[in-house]
Amino acid sequence: NAGVTQTPKFQVLKTGQSMTLQCAQDMNHEYMSWYRQDPGMGLRLIHYSVGAGITDQGEVPNGYNVSRSTTEDFPLRLLSAAPSQTSVYFCASSRRGGMDTGELFFGEGSRLTVL
Amino acid sequence: GIQVEQSPPDLILQEGANSTLRCNFSDSVNNLQWFHQNPWGQLINLFYIPSGTKQNGRLSATTVATERYSLLYISSSQTTDSGVYFCAVAPDSWGKLQFGAGTQVVVTP
Questions:
Q1: Which chain B positions have a beta carbon within 8 Å of A9's beta carbon?
Q2: What is the pLDDT of residues B68-103, one digit of tens each?
Q3: For chain A, which end, N or C, has fewer CB atoms within 10 Å of the first or last residue's CB respectively?
């Protein structure tokens, strides 16, 4: 199993550009989520999904869109990048029932710089 | 949402020392996890421990849910233990986790 895979690992954007951070998991996890990590602020939840076709907002959703068309994939879209979105982004997934319910697995992160 | 406070914010240890990290939370939880973020930025799940005690090698954790705190013990610390330790909680057994600000641990040779 590859676990949770994020691409790209690094990206530089100009203000106003759009882009998509990709996230895929091969563990058949129902729950997927996106966090951003800024210095001194821990991890903050952007969006999450409890299954294909179902998404909801987290703590800091503004400026981001998500969709969940399959169980495996949960892309994060930046609509019009701003310098305040410079951060490290983590995708994570977990099981919703049965053994290991709730244990969160993270991807390796995507470092985004917006100039 | 649930407030999560971790202490101390920073910890410097000599190799071989023991230490205790604390996580306080403001409401009842059914999901509590400890994570280690290594110096390369990878986040590794250490424990899923909404209550009780677990041990994994030199690390152990205890959660006293009724008193709303959890402790992470590091024994005989090694330089590879350096990094940031995060506590995260949620009211449900799975789903949205609220993270604390973390404890930065530096283990010196």
A1: none
A2: 999 999 999 999 999 999 999 998 887 889 999 999
A3: N
